[in-house]
Amino acid sequence: MKGHRLLGIVIPLLSLLVGSTSYAEQTAGDVYWHIDPSVKSCSMVIDPSLTQSQWARFTREAGAIVSFKSLASAEPLGKRNVTIGIDYAMTPIDQHDPAWINTFTHPDADCPLGDRIELPTIRARLGISSSMDVGGYWTTAPGANYGLLGGEFKYAFRKESATVPAAAVSASFTALTGVPDFNLTVYSLGFVASKRISKLAPYLGVRENMAIGTETTAKVDLSSERIAFTQGFVGATYSIWKLGVAAEYNVARVNTFALVIASR
């Protein structure tokens, strides 16, 4: 999917997909888009045909997509240091899967379901001590009914030396916002280790997640899904003048590539 582009203050969000409401229209590949002319842009809406198994799959895959990505080495920022940036994440998905089709709706047939989810966000991080950072991110889809809000706490418990890499642990959450039909929240605990090589700092880590999806509409009667999953990730940061660049690849049920450019 081609997704929303950065707009206004620099953010629209995932350009996720399609899903539900008044009537459906068939397109190439025998995929049915749910159409609702009353929405201005592709929006998250549960279709009455959504099943429990589809809801579980959506919760797992959407949870992996929106979980708080590290996009930083294990090194702390340092007390009172701040970084603000823009990040972009891309995740290939199966556009023929009813789990995605039945959780979105389109304004018309020209807003098709694509083969990937693109997610631009605004991200910030603050050093609150010599070893602790807090961070957050936010995004919204112009004209649509959804957005994301996330936060992270990171503690660097091992400083880097000539022979030992830096190491840190983190706790984070992400919550879907603005969707009347359901709630989706992801809670995560992570570990990351890194070793600086001049201006480059490769890192790798693992993240344990709990995605909780709860429908809030009378159109369906589905149980809440609580799905635990593991993400492994590898990445690198690089310093360029007063900017920092980080690239990261996350591996789970669906795999995400993320990139951030931030002030230093």
Largest sheet: 10 strands, antiparallel, barrel
* Shape estimate: elongated
* Average pLDDT figure: 86
State the secondary-structure class. mainly beta
Strand element count: 14
CATH topology: Lipocalin
| Count of separate DSSP helical elements | 2
Contiguous runs where pLDDT drops below 50 for at least 5 residues: 1-29
Q: What count of structural domains?
A: 1
Helix content: under 10%
Could you name the CATH class? Mainly Beta
CATH structural architecture = Beta Barrel
Radius of gyration: 19 Å
Report on the architecture of this protein.
The chain is mainly beta and 264 residues long. It has one domain: Lipocalin. Helices cover 7% and strands 50% of the residues. The protein contains 2 helices and 14 strands; from the N terminus they run βββαβαββββββββββ. The protein has helices spanning 52-66, 98-101; strands at 23-27, 31-35, 43-44, 82-92, 104-105, 116-127, 132-140, 147-158, 166-177, 182-194, 200-215, 225-240, 243-251, 256-263. The radius of gyration is 19 Å and the shape is elongated. Mean pLDDT is 86; it is low at 1-29.
